[in-house]
Design brief:
The complex is a heterodimer of chains A (about 375) and B (about 500). Helices cover about 70% and strands about 0% of the residues of chain A. Chain A is an all-alpha fold and about 375 residues long. Chain A has a single domain, classed as Orthogonal Bundle (ABC transporter involved in vitamin B12 uptake, BtuC), CATH 1.10.3470. The relative contact order of chain A is 0.18. With about 500 residues, chain B is an alpha/beta fold. Chain B has two domains: about 230 residues, P-loop containing nucleotide triphosphate hydrolases (Rossmann fold, 3-Layer(aba) Sandwich), CATH 3.40.50; about 250 residues, 3-Layer(aba) Sandwich (Rossmann fold). In chain B, helix 6 links the parallel strand 7 and strand 8. In chain B, helix 4 crosses helix 5 and helix 5 packs parallel to helix 6. The chains are: A mainly alpha (about 375), B alpha/beta (about 500). At the A-B interface, helix 7, helix 8, helix 12 and helix 13 of A face helix 10, helix 11, helix 13 and helix 14 of B.
Chain lengths: ~375, ~500
């Protein structure tokens, strides 16, 4: 019995990487070609491509942080076999709640953030409880949650927007200020790395480790892949699902706070359609909608990739109408391509170990 | 008698590795009830599927309908007038009786409008011919299970089918419903339709049959008119295998009682009492649907116990969930490893540690650890796989079963429930699984084994409990265990 070959970095199996790696490769090639052509045409020589300026790379992290944090929660929920459509509106709720609490009710920013997290966790726990104990379709319950959250948020805001006065500026503190109060420069650009980007990276690593190295993580995968077998293997299926939603609630709360930090205004549009971006990031990362397959690290890369694509298209001055089209096509091509290549490799694996008895299984 | 309406000549059906039917001759005459008898796995279902066109027989034999050779497909079979009524219900519960009967075959009048009045009248005629007491407008979901079956049979009358195939129609019926169904089947036959009837219940067979065909291990043993054969002869012909089909195993002295049940009820079984000892295998025989797996789920805490008690090592236990049972060292190797035993998309390593999570103190677990566990059991059970990182879905049936065993061995259990331990597994792997079971006994473990494989239950069990309709129909000690005794108890009308 020979040990299986370990492939690139954290990915033990190739299939974990398939979707992400294909998209990344074509994306990088496309951007480089474009940048070189653009460089020649404008300056008549090879220019340093603006997309891979260190400052732009950090920009991508900044733009992606909120969606990325929520993608970690969504990955956990989807691995346990569920889905959560309510996250976008919950972000709006968080943003409006914090803005209202700080600006109109005179609460301290720290207090209001903690309260906002409590609200999202309890809302997710309520939905998780209904989904796990009453065994209802998560799609429907969270759809209802999404609409209800929208209502609560609009009621709190009285359908108005609430501007803030940099009350949450702490989250934007530049990490590089630690080294030098004037900031660190690279290639003539000042580097910006706010605390919340650091938080994003920490949460991503933490979620990845939780799913991979803890008993709870193993239970999430088992419940998502085969709830019946999980139950008979002594796993509390309902509790595991409930905790997955609770964890998601915590991350949605954090993601919502960061979205507010970036926009500085509590308004219903903060989180509008965000659930689509979050689910897209997770799906591009190869997490199966049917549950039990995928990992947090590739969802992390999926989130960065979606951010990078948006960023690159903006740098290339592609109209936003076209951007939607391209992003949509990328999701469709990436996920169906990933499924196709996985089927091919599975077929190969089955063929190499085939014996008559498994054919009977498939027929009976 | 008139000309046979349907005839199978020398039909065989081979699945990779298994010959399900071999050189079967079978015929049906208009107006007769032809019963097909045989143990689980004798080939009855395969025969039905050939009748209905779902399976194509191997080349060599021929299928004749009204004297003409045919290649049947499910669609063609229906067009010719062969109606197959499977064991499971195929009804639309939210539609009315009339709509169910005409589903997909609506009578369309002029202008593409469905002719409701005409359909209702035809349904009403069929129902009154069969003396059914429900209205054609009733919702099928509100009918009893017996009446649902009648709706499916009424289709045959409405569309004037020529052949009706009934597969185990009375499974899970009450006594009065069985009476009702038997009357209806007689009426169907009286209207000139040929009926092929499969049942485990010998009393039904003798009340209905004009002719009886007995299958065993894919071969036809005999076809006889009902009057020429009695229950004893029937049972003797259903069993009676070669000695080579049995195994001899090492026996161990009876240890301490490991698990006992007293007047246990719940999950569709009632008044179950038994004692299983360490170092022995207690077999559970009976027909499919006799409540054996339901009993095992109940023992494991997977269903609610309504009364009675379970004792482990002499002390009463109350399992609310399977994890309670696993903590008390119970292991449940389920009958359906793909749906209730394994996580098919996951690796061998991940599958191997999953049940033992219950006993783990530390919340952390490193992939290296479960890789090592997976690797250990691959070597111990001699699983054929490229390594502990192989995905379980890519393994063969026998090797998948070994992964299920690894999952439970890792919990360090004492009481093992094996539900159909060798279903869908080839002969070589079977022997290995048996050897693994014997090794467990050597370690003073206790095994409860549910099996429909007659040679398996006869050769492996120290004692056998026979179940019938959710109750214990009898128990046999080692010396009394024989195919004939088991079958007599599990299907016979009267106990011996």
């Amino acid at each position: 019995m020979k040990r299986e070959k370990k492939s690139f970095l954290i990915f033990r199996k190739n299939s974990d990487l398939q979707t992400v790696s294909v998209v990344t490769f074509f994306f990088v090639v496309a951007v480089l070609i474009y940048q070189i052509i653009a460089g020649f045409s404008t300056k008549g020589g090879l220019a340093y491509p603006s997309f891979i300026y260190p400052s732009n790379i950090l920009n991508i992290f900044i733009q992606v942080a909120a969606v990325g944090i929520m993608a970690m929660g969504m990955a956990t929920v989807m691995l346990s076999g569920g889905i959560d459509l309510s996250v976008g509106m919950m972000v709006s709720l968080v943003a409006i709640f914090i803005a209202k609490a700080v600006m109109h009710w005179g609460m301290s920013p720290a207090m209001s953030v903690v309260l906002a997290l409590l609200i999202t966790v309890s809302l997710e726990l309520i939905m998780g409880f209904i989904i796990a104990w009453l065994n209802v379709e998560p799609f429907i319950i969270t759809l209802g949650g999404m609409i209800a959250c929208r209502g609560i948020a609009l009621l709190i805001a009285r359908s108005q927007e609430i501007a803030m006065e940099q009350n949450l500026a702490w989250f934007k503190t530049n990490v590089f200020d630690w080294f030098n109060s004037d900031g660190v420069k690279l290639f003539g650009f000042k580097l910006q790395l706010p605390y919340y980007v650091l938080l994003f990276v920490l949460i991503a690593v933490g979620t990845w480790a939780m799913l991979k190295y803890t008993r709870f993580g193993r239970r999430i995968y088992a419940v998502g892949n085969n709830p019946q077998a999980a139950y008979l293997s002594g796993i509390n299926v309902r509790l595991t699902k409930l905790l997955a939603y609770g964890f998601n609630g915590l991350l949605v709360g954090i993601g919502g706070t960061i979205a507010l930090v970036r926009q500085n205004t509590g308004i219903i549009t903060v989180g509008q359609n965000m659930e689509i971006d979050v689910i897209a990031a997770v799906v591009i990362g190869g997490v199966a909608m049917s549950g039990g397959k995928g990992n947090a690290m590739s969802a992390f890369i999926g989130a960065l990739l979606m951010g990078a694509i948006t960023n690159a298209m903006t740098l290339m001055r592609i109209q936003f109408e076209w951007q939607y089209l391209v992003k949509g096509l990328i999701i469709i091509v990436a996920v169906s391509g990933g499924a196709l290549s996985e089927r091919l490799s599975n077929r190969k694996a089955v063929r190499s170990q085939e014996d008559p008895s498994c054919k009977i299984d498939s027929q009976s | 008698m008139a000309e046979a309406i349907f005839r199978l000549n020398c039909i065989s059906k081979t699945f990779p590795g298994v010959k399900a039917l071999s050189r079967i001759d079978f015929d049906l005459y208009p107006g007769e009830v032809h019963c097909i008898c045989g143990e689980n796995g004798a080939g009855k279902s395969t025969l039905i599927k050939i009748l209905s066109g779902a399976y194509q027989p191997d080349p060599g034999g021929s299928v004749e309908f009204e004297g003409k050779r045919m290649v049947l497909t499910p669609r063609l079979a229906l067009e010719l007038g062969i109606q197959t009524i499977y064991q499971e219900f195929n009804v639309f519960p939210d539609l009315s009786v009339t709509e169910n009967i005409f589903a997909g075959l609506e009578i369309v009048g002029r202008g593409m409008v469905v002719n409701r009045a005409e359909m209702r009248k035809k349904a009403q005629d069929a129902l009154s011919y069969l003396r059914c007491r429900f209205s054609p407008d009733a919702l099928v979901g509100e009918l009893s299970s017996g009446e649902k079956k009648l709706v499916e049979i009424a289709k045959a009358i409405v569309f004037q089918r020529k052949i009706v195939v009934l597969d185990e129609p009375t499974a899970s019926f009450s006594v009065s419903e069985i009476e009702m169904l038997l009357d209806v089947v007689k009426k169907v036959a009286a209207s000139g339709i040929a009926v092929a009837y499969i049942s485990h219940h010998l009393d039904e067979v003798f009340r209905l049959a004009d002719r009886i065909t007995i299958l065993r291990d894919g071969m036809k043993i005999l076809t006889a008119c009902a009057g020429e054969i009695d229950e004893q002869t029937l049972v003797r012909n259903m069993v009676g295998r070669d000695v080579s089909a049995f195994y001899s195993r090492q026996l161990f002295p009876q240890g301490k009682p490991a698990i006992e049940a007293r007047h246990l009820c719940g999950n569709g079984v009632s008044d179950i009492g038994f004692t299983a000892y360490r170092g022995q295998i207690l077999g559970f025989a009976g027909m499919v649907g006799s409540g054996r797996s339901e009993l095992m789920t109940l023992l494991m805490g997977g269903a609610k116990r309504t009364s009675g008690e379970i004792l482990i090592d002499g002390k009463p236990v109350d399992f609310r969930d399977p994890w309670d049972a696993i903590r008390r060292k119970m292991c449940y190797i389920t009958e359906d490893r793909q749906n209730t035993g394994l996580f098919l998309k996951h690796t061998i390593a991940r599958n191997s540690i999953i049940a033992n999570l219950v006993n783990r103190r530390s919340p952390f677990i490193h992939p290296r650890e479960y890789y090592a566990v997976g690797q250990h059991y691959i070597e111990e059970l001699r699983t054929k796989a490229t390594g502990a990182n192989a995905v379980v879905a890519t393994l063969s049936g026998g090797n998948q079963q070994k992964v299920v065993l690894a999952k439970w061995f890792h919990t360090d259990g004492d009481i093992f429930i094996f539900d159909e331990p060798t279903r869908g597994i080839d002969v070589g792997a079977k022997q290995e699984i048996y050897q693994i079971m014997i090794n467990l006994l050597k370690q003073d473990k206790c095994i409860l084994m549910v099996s429909s494989d007659m040679p398996e239950i006869v050769s492996m069990s120290d004692r056998v409990i026979i179940m019938k309709e959710g109750r214990i129909a009898g128990a046999l000690e080692r010396a009394e265990i024989s195919e004939e005794n088991i079958l007599q108890l599990s299907i016979g009308g009267s106990s011996i």
